[in-house]
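During the reporting period the student researcher (J.K.) took over the structure-prediction task from the postdoctoral fellow and processed the backlog of single-chain submissions. One of the processed entries is reproduced below for the supervisory committee.
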Amino acid sequence: MIYLLPGLGADARVFRNLQPLLLGESRVLEWVLPASPTEPLPAYAARLAADIPPEQTGLLVGISFGGVVALEINRLRPQLRTVLISSIPDAHSLPPLLRLIRATGVYRLVPPQLLKLFPRVGQWYFGVKNGEEYRLFREVLRDMEPRYTRWAIHSLLHWDSANVGRAIQILGTHDRVFPPGPTPVEYLIPGGGHFMVVSHAQEISRILNKLAAGEPHPLAPSPKERGN
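J.K. obtained the following C-alpha cells:
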C-alpha cells in the first residue's frame, strides 16, 4: 500500500499525474480541519493515523507540509517507510527564509488568502509552469481553507522533530521552498521545483515503485555497515 499526503492547502488533485503511474494500491489521506487553532501536530497526526491499520506496511509519502505530517504519523505507524517529496526530514532543515518568517512573526499578520490575490508570485516561488500546472495551482489557491492554512503554517514553523524517524527524501534541484542544502538527499530530481509532484510525476513514480518493491535507496547502509 502507498499512502499519499498532499501539501499545505492541496488535496488529491496534486496526485492526478502521479497516482495512475503507481503500481499496486494507493490511497490519498485527505486533510481534515484542526480540532482547534492550537491543536498540537502530534494530536492531529494521530487523527489521520486512525485510518491506517496499526500493522500496515508499505510507503507513507508526504508532499511538502504533508511530509512533516507523514513523519509524525510514522511515529505511530512505524511499519510504514516514510518518503518525503519536496519536504524536509527535520526542523533543523527549515530554510533561512522560513526561519526569518518564524523569527519576525510576520506570518501571523498576513492572511493566508492574500496569496490568492497574487498567484504569479506563488507561481514563481513554487516553480509552477504555465498551462495545466498553473491552472491546477490556481484551483488549489482558490480552495485553500484559511483556518487549516493558518494552523498548518504555525505547525510547520514550530515543529518539534525531536526523535523523529528516518525518511527517504526526494527533492528537486530548483526547489525554492525547501532548496537542497548540505545534508545528503537520497534522490535529487534535476530541474524539479516545489510542484514537481505534478511536473515530474514520471521520475517520481519510478522511484516510488522501486521503493515499494523493496529496493534499497541510494544512501541505505550496506549489510556490512548494518553489522549483518
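The committee noted the following: The CA atoms of residues 88 and 94 lie 7 Å apart.
J.K. will present the remaining backlog at the next meeting.
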